[in-house]
Amino acid sequence: MAQACVIGLARGNEPATPPSPDTPRLSASALSTMSRGEAMVEAWRLRDEGRWLETLAICEALLQRDPADDDAYRLRVLALADLGASHRAWELYQARPHLFEPVIARRLQADRVARMIVWGGLHPVSPESRLVEMQAAQAALAGLTAKLAATDDAAVSRQRMANDELIALNTLGQHEAVSERYRQVVADGGELPAYVGAAVGDSLLSARHPELAVDALEATLRDDPEAHEARILLVYAYVESERFDDAYALMESLQASEAPWLTRAGARQEYPNWRRYDVDVTRVLVDSFAHALADAQRRAESLVSVGAMNAHLHQTLGSVYLQRGWGERGLERHRVAKTLDPDDAAPRVGEVQALLDLDRTAEARRLLAELIALHPENLHAQRAQQRWERRQGWQVNYESAWGRNTDDGTADTAVASPLGSRDSRHELRVASPLFNDRWRLTAHVLEANADFEGERVHHRLFGAGLSYVHDRLQWGLEAAVPTDDYDDGTTVGTWGQWRFSDVLAGRASVYLNEPLASLQARRAGISADAARVRLDYTPTEFTTVQAGLEHLRYEDGNRRDSASVLFDQRLTSRPHFLLNGFGGVQAGRGSREDAPYFNPTRDASLELGLRADHIAWRRYDRHFRHRLAVSAVNYWQEGFGAEWYPQVRYEHEWQLAAGRQIGYGVGYARPVYDGVREDRVSFDLRVAWGE
User: How far is Cα of residue 123 from the mean position of the Cα atoms in its chain?
Assistant: First the structure.
């Protein structure tokens, strides 16, 4: 907020219009011929015209003649204060305080504190000393405020001190304190000066009060339409208030008013407009928030190609890469940014986030500790630590699903669905806190039920396991024992996943006594072993392709193989609306024709559909969104031909906080099994706790 502080220094005795560069200067020879009285008159005249350097030169010359000249000494202090040399003016004041009226003394001290605030907001010598000067400024400000309490102009002085303190608190990261003071000002019917607006707006955004930030920043721009930092912050305030149309309108206005390059009369070449730089970087971030990540990437890469040594641009591009799901590429960019600017917190935060995305937890632990030690007040660092703690802690997932299947009334047989006339499935999985940065103990309970011709098949499993996650490898081992009368075999399984790159991952699993095998088969006392492999290809967040193979080995000798290719493609992206096309092809075959469960000798299906996803409400880590998916399926079964049938699903998703989510949905379909068309209605519920 250094810019706001500089604006704030223009208070007190404001000078007349600055002199033209062509104004003749007083020569040393002319000064030497003047008497003391003439020199003092000239010095005061020059000060009134805002020619402070010349005023200072006369005072220095007079003090060389007579160091005890109190009038020259006093005017020298005032000229230094006018020039912004507040600390030096204060030092000289302290040597001869009797020369100054109380009101002037208070002004000198206030200017010194204001200058200390400016220094506290500038780039530090080292990260360790970053807040030392601002903390000293805050202490000096508190002392000055206490002294001013009983003075005649206390109200005006206290207001000035309060404004300066808002800037100091903003720099120190005490954003809630700034927010509370702003609320009090508004409640009292007061207004803040424009030079404080950007600092207050920044704190209101950091404390997650975007609507208040909009009010404060719009008021600032009414008073000072050219307040550049306030205009940029207002864009973010619109975005965080979910007012994307206003944000883009303001962005367009800013881009139109700020040319990329500027020139001056007589200059040989143009020079960069850093205001336009701020606008372009802000446009990248706004696009990323609005689901326009392809546009954000294109803009960021274009900027990096021009400013290859700009740490902030690399950090911005790295953030876009992370949002697109490219952890390795994002990590590389954040490390480049950290190399170029090792004192900045943002690349360090991005590096920690990338390492967490890549499951390189041990590295993230060390870097997070360094980040918090260097930037304890940084909100992004604090949120990275909160994400770390969520990942380290307990992980709980619960899923339930219920369904009912009825024939359409044209068949003489009972429902042929492999799910039965009624079915339900409930699963609770709990994982322990992470230990040694890689391992978790797991436990799960699975209960599945289905009604077949009046008989209920009940299957319940209690299991435990161990999981390992580090970098590219994820691996797990689990075992479970049943408590039902249909099967007493212990389930044992292992699975593994390998990330080949940012866009390609493979997964494989093997289970003895597969827990998800057909309940129809379990009703007949037949269990199955299973092996699966799958490849996931996700070039961007717009596209996902999955290809998988499955082999089931039933105890009755049946061997069932299936293959599938599924896709999901983003068609439309808006800040609050996403439209995806999805579908896939699946094919399977069974080796037995007389199995006592649904087991087509050959079958295949083709699905094509659309899914609309609307974010109805969002507030940072919390949101409510609902989705509607509609698809058409063509299912072919050997001996029965092919039939089309529809599928519809509608669901709600509530995110109560980061890592706290509840979802539920209903579905309807008219599938065909063994030539019998059925109506299926389903409902499901899921709860996720942790990350």
Answer: 24
Phi, psi of 690 (to 5 degrees): 120, -170
Percent of the chain with pLDDT over 90: 58
CB atoms within 10 A of CB 37: 9
Rounded CA separation 155/82 (Å): 23
Encode pLDDT of 261-290 as tens digits. Answer: 888 888 888 888 999 999 999 999 999 999
Scanning the structure block, which residue is given the tokens 């001056």? Answer: 264
- Condensed to tens digits (0 to 9), the pLDDT of residues 370-399 reads 999 888 888 899 999 999 999 999 999 999
The amino acid occupying position 10 is A
Query: Is the pLDDT confidence value at 643 over 80?
Result: yes
Helix, strand, coil % over all residues of the chain, rounded to 5: 40, 30, 25
> Residue 456 to residues 365, 450, 484, 633: CA-CA distances in angstroms?
50, 6, 11, 29
For range 564-575, the mean pLDDT? 96
* pLDDT at residue number 628: 98
Q: What is the separation, in whole angstroms, between the first and last Cα of the chain?
A: 35
d(CA 475, CA 494) in angstroms, rounded, equals: 8
Count of beta carbons in the 10 Å neighbourhood of residue 95: 9
Separation CA 74–CA 56 (nearest Å): 11
What digits encode the pLDDT tens for the residues 173-192? 788 988 998 888 888 887 88
Quick one: DSSP state of residue 99? G
Cβ(53)–Cβ(80) under 8 Å?
no
> Could you tell me if 235 and 205 are in contact, meaning their C-beta atoms sit under 8 angstroms apart?
no
Mean pLDDT (whole number) for 72-98: 86
DSSP assignments along 566-595, one per residue: EEEEEEEEETTEEEEEEEEEEEEEES-SS-
